[in-house]
Design goal:
alpha/beta; homodimer; 2 domains; 319 residues; five-stranded mixed beta sheet; Nucleotidyltransferase, domain 5
Chain lengths: 319, 319
């Protein structure tokens, strides 16, 4: 297999990279997405970004990952809120521009494939990546294959129920994990405690401006010994624990990796998650699983996109 | 493919059948398991049962399903509480006796394969069978393949958490679905309401003997209009709804089938489950899924065991 292009389409920026078959980034470029200017302009920007890194090199295939629900077979983005996409063709315009095979995938699924093929999940057959950011998503590899389901709308761990009659969620449900363990959920929880009159050293930092409160700040304060911040992170970790016990008892994986902005909290987050799984998951499954931090850093998106292309080419060759 | 033997090993009885490739039962026999007399006798009983139905016919393969954690590759039962099995060989003694390929699988997984290949799940690619009996288990087919995980300890929906700080469960966890939606859970819930002084017409039937209270009785009373029985079944259905929303948002299946003794309650159980999924699952996933009752009746076990053999032979031929 030759050189691959990996494209990570985000709401703000397009990250494009040339990568080797071993997932090594050879060159990289960041280009504004231009989502405000509509679908046509976004596709032009993707093609322009790939042209800039490709130059006169031959590439074997292009992997593209996008937020939202992706029809992998048709190469269509069925829906992506932050891109204003509804049933738009992602694959064809890029294939037309470069005359090489193009493979598209949901961004969290792609990140899971990347982490599984080139990161901490290497060598496992059953691997789950959970991304904790503004939202919470996952990508799941079972018996060596990415979980796709009917409409590629799988692994929505952020919208699994961790409190039966819990907080109302944007998805229309209630008590979703995302309401408790996302960056947004952590900030909301801290605000509630502060409004009830509890003390935290974050108060001095934000100086009455609630908008300055972030999950990263709360994680830092927790690491520095602030009791309320520790409690908030522990509660977020326990809710994550509930969702992960359910996944561990369902998928019997070798590894669960945790990534995304909230994962920067490190041990303060992962330690109570591990304890919760040890005490609440079934014995065989708890013994089989390791809970770790994801290992691919800033390049996770483009490496994931390249992994999608590699995986798809391998599957075609296997048929 | 020729005639197959399907063997359903249970705690009390061994059910053995000869089946066509189309899953049609040609002959059937019931034989006591003899679990009290130990592993050796159980294996003798299985072989004896297969000999009795086989007579002088040629069979192509034997499928065997067993409760517990099954090492499918090695043909070993790692653990099965009700059979007193700990790391015993299931495959080899049968292969030695009949000189045909033998394939073993967990019983709920086998039932899911049977229901998927020959029952209500036919034609789907993503199918979940949930069995509600004394315990609660599931078998999951994703993208046309049975979910196995690292140790074949997957799909333990009965031990997914539906109440974070809920009732303590035998598995060591808390708030497991099995504590609320199994036959045992339903009986426990009714007892609690009665002990608190609530009225139900079951009281007249059991005449003070709590041991006569069954989930089937409660389901019958609910169908006949008993308010408390209706409430108990609805609560059990809502907890099942929580676990199924989590599965639907995770697997994006075309179909969820509900089987086992508790499923005999029919619409009284499935209607609130469907409503819960409609109102709480994500839109795409809720639209994609049908919730139905399982269709294979008494022969589900042996048909499932035969499906395991068929599936395994097909997989080998595909390689």
């Amino acid at each position: 297999m030759g050189i691959l292009a990996g494209v990570d389409l985000g709401g703000t920026n397009i990250e494009a990279a040339l990568l080797s078959e071993q997932g090594k980034v050879m060159s990289h470029i960041t280009h504004p997405t231009g989502a405000d200017e509509g679908y046509g302009r976004v596709m032009e920007n993707i093609i322009s970004a790939v042209k800039k890194i490709k130059k006169d090199k031959e590439i074997e295939a292009i992997g593209l990952c996008s937020p939202g629900i992706i029809d992998v077979d048709q190469g269509i983005c069925r829906f992506a809120g932050n891109l204003n996409f509804n049933n738009v063709q992602l694959r064809r315009p890029i294939e037309d521009a470069f005359s090489v095979p193009v493979f598209v995938e949901n961004d969290v699924n792609a990140a899971a494939l990347g982490e599984w093929r080139f990161g901490t999940g290497k060598g496992t057959d059953n691997f789950i990546l959970v991304m904790l950011g503004t939202g919470v998503g996952a990508g799941i590899i079972t018996d060596g294959r990415l979980l796709h389901g009917k409409s590629n709308a799988t692994a929505e761990i952020g919208h699994t129920i961790v409190e039966k009659d819990g907080l109302f969620c944007n998805c229309g449900g209630r008590g979703c994990l995302e309401m408790y363990s996302s960056a947004t959920g952590i900030v909301r929880m801290m605000k509630q405690y502060l409004m009830k009159g509890n003390y935290s050293s974050v108060t001095a930092d934000i100086q009455g401006d609630w908008d300055r409160l972030t999950a990263a700040m709360i994680a830092q304060k927790a690491a520095a010994g602030d009791k309320l911040s520790q409690q908030v992170i522990r509660e977020a970790a326990e809710y994550l624990g509930v969702a992960l016990v359910n996944y561990v008892n369902t998928f019997n994986p070798e590894m669960v990796a945790i990534g995304g902005g909230v994962a920067k909290a490190g041990d303060i987050l992962t330690q109570p998650v591990k304890e919760f799984i040890s005490s609440r998951a079934m014995e065989v499954q708890a013994n089989d699983v390791s809970v770790v931090l994801s290992s691919l850093g800033e390049d996770a998106g483009t490496i994931g996109a390249a992994a999608v292309a590699i995986e798809s080419i391998k599957t075609v060759k296997d048929l």
